[in-house]
DNA sequence: GTTGAAAATAGCACGAA
DNA sequence: TTCGTGCTATTTTCAAC
């Protein structure tokens, strides 16, 4: 008689990165356009293996995609700001839609606490910032903080 | 007499993207690993031109780099949180250093307002979150909001 | 910006551990 | 399963226009 196949816990399989996966992720995090061959050299493997691993990381949901890091100031958006947004009673979904429809909001999280939304804004000028906030003013209370600089650039937690 | 050469404003030159640059940036934003040839097809140009444009966008500081979008939850960091941090008098720089040294802080902006820092945290558990905040507790006042979800995924403002 | 040729690379099928 | 090798098609890069 043959032994029955025991399926591994999905969560565990997905979230377990070995040393090599970690090196690949970290290299891709520094430069997502590295060629497969260069990655292969960096981690000491053959190109097809690296290619496979990347595909697996994507399939497991670890890699959500590859993107370009654009400096918004270099394209004319001189001001970045963080906006805490507290919709008036009954206006939660309306406000969420308004945020999504305003392309100056370049990021928005739903969070716990008094203010349900925390959004990031990129604008050309104070006037434009005011204009954006104005569209929310009858439906939500906002508090805005201008970004002066960066202490920690977006990075990966320890792998 | 010949007309004198009038140098263009640097700022203007750098920040002015034409239609094609915009298409390239937007395509790279969706998938930073698109091949040059594929990009060339998308924008209707030859590969060397596209290659040049990307190099120029990097040189101009518009493109800061290419990175991978990793789902922190898929690698075991089940909790993300936003932390507002107000250092006690005289402890601004100490606190900034503490934030930078803690790899669980995966992002931190310096902002205007009562709380000088706004940081993003990724942790495995509430216990780990508490541990991280504990390291700041004697030097700063913090308020923490857990991220429940995303209303707007990171996106580019209009080009 | 384009073209064309040389070098590097990616993708695939296959076999090995 | 996961990894490596060898082949072919594609891609990148550089020079010249």
> Are there runs of chain A of 5+ residues with pLDDT below 50, and where?
1-14
- Total beta-strand segments of chain A: 5
* Biggest sheet record of chain A: 4 strands, antiparallel
Which structural class best describes the helix and strand composition of chain A? alpha+beta
Distance between the first and last residues' Cα of chain A: 41 Å
Strand content of chain A: 25-35%
The SSE order of chain A reads HHHHEEHEEHE
Mean pLDDT of chain A: 92
Q: Characterize the overall form of chain A.
A: elongated
Order of strands in the sheet with the most strands of chain A?
A: 3-4-2-5
Helix content of chain A: 25-40%
Radius of gyration of chain A: 22 Å
Q: Pair with the most extensive interface?
A: A-B, 63 and 63 residues
Total helical segments of chain A: 6
Quaternary structure of the protein: homodimer
Task: Describe the structure in your own words.
- Two copies of one chain form a homodimer.
- Residues 1-14 of chain A have low confidence and may be disordered.
- Chain A has helices at residues 10-15, 19-30, 36-43, 47-59, 92-101, 126-136; strands spanning 63-70, 79-87, 105-111, 117-123, 140-152.
- The longest helix of chain A has 13 residues, at 47-59.
- Chain A is elongated, with a radius of gyration of 22 Å.
- The first copy, chain A, contains six helices and five strands.
- Helix content of chain A is 38%, strand content 28%.
- In chain A, a hairpin with a 5-residue loop joins strand 3 (105-111) and strand 4.
- In chain A, strands 3-4-2-5 form a four-stranded antiparallel beta sheet.
- Chain A starts with 9 loop residues before the first helix and ends in a 7-residue tail after the last strand.
- With 159 residues, chain A is an alpha+beta fold.
- At the A-B interface, helix 2, strand 1, helix 5, strand 3 and strand 4 of A face helix 2, strand 1, helix 5, strand 3 and strand 4 of B.
- Chain A binds a DNA duplex (17 and 17 nucleotides) through residues 35-37, 45-49, 51-53.
- Chains A, B: This is Lrp/AsnC family transcriptional regulator.
- Chains A, B: InterPro entries: ArsR-like_HTH, AsnC-type_HTH_dom, Dimeric_a/b-barrel, Tscrpt_reg_AsnC-like, Tscrpt_reg_AsnC/Lrp_C, Tscrpt_reg_HTH_AsnC-type_CS, WH-like_DNA-bd_sf, WH_DNA-bd_sf.
- Chains A, B: It comes from Rhizobium lentis.
- Chains A, B: Pfam families: AsnC_trans_reg, HTH_24.
- Chains A, B: Residues 17-78 form the HTH asnC-type domain.
């Amino acid at each position: 008689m043959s032994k029955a196949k025991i399926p591994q816990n999905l969560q565990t399989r997905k979230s377990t990165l070995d040393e090599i996966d970690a090196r690949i992720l970290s290299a891709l995090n520094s430069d997502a356009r590295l060629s497969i061959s260069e990655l292969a050299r960096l981690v000491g493997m053959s190109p097809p293996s690296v290619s496979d691993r990347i595909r697996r990381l994507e399939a497991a949901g670890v890699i959500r995609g590859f993107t370009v890091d654009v400096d918004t100031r270099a394209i004319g958006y001189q001001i970045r700001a963080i906006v805490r947004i507290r919709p008036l009673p009954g206006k939660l979904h309306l406000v969420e839609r308004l945020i999504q429809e305003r392309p100056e909001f370049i990021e928005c999280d739903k969070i716990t606490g008094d203010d349900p939304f925390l959004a990031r804004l990129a604008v050309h000028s104070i006037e434009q910032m005011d204009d954006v906030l104005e569209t929310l003013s009858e439906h939500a209370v906002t508090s805005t903080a201008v970004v002066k600089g960066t202490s920690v650039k977006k990075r990966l937690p320890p792998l």
